[in-house]
Amino acid sequence: MSGENSDSATCSETTLTVNGKPHTLLVDHRRVLLDVLREDLDLWGARKGCDHGQCGACTVLVDGRRVNSCLLLAVALDGSEVRTVEGLGGDGGELHPLQQAFLDRDAFQCGYCTPGQLCSALGMLDEAAAGHPSRVTGDTRHGGPEPGRPVQLDRDEIRERLSGNLCRCGAYPRIVDAVEDVIR
User: Which domains does the chain have, with CATH numbers?
Assistant: First the structure.
């Protein structure tokens, strides 16, 4: 249980399933998911970049949707499933195809944004497969894809969908290359 220096009036027991493992924590109502992951569960992959939801370094998947974990109050996620970059690979230590593609394409430099980029890319692939359009997908009423049908991912579509994740090193072309390798 966490919650040092907190009284029970400002804390709630919260259960999160993180990377397939349930965790029940006593969480201060003011704490965000990012801090709980890093400080209480020792999952350091999600990074604290801007702490304002603008850079994407803290991106994780909550119930299959990509989110900025620096903005979400952990107590509001009671019962949710959280997947971090640490949970992308298999049980035997093998890499997720996106992780392998990032390595193969040298799609990172300093690596600070890479965990958020990977989680965002995985969420983006699931969103496109489910038929969720982006700004560049095209109008479904005027020749674009049918609603609910998978969206074809080209370089413009990938760039648009990953635009919420910033890379100060400028590895964007290689990140797009890596995602393209996975969807081929």
Answer: 8-87 (3.10.20.30), 97-183 (1.10.150.120)
**pTM of the predicted structure, to 2 decimals:** 0.90
pLDDT in tens, 96-154: 999 999 999 999 999 999 999 999 999 999 999 999 989 888 765 555 556 678 999 99
CB atoms within 10 A of CB 122: 23
- What's the token pair of residue 133? 């359009």
> Tokens for 170?
């400028």
* Neighbour order of strands in the sheet with 65-68: 21-28, 11-18, 81-83, 59-62, 65-68
Nearest to 67 by CA among 21, 16, 119: 119
- Token readout for 68 is 């900025």
Nearest residue to 128 via CA among 160, 176, 164, 165: 160
pLDDT of residue 60: 98
Amino acid sitting at position 168 = R
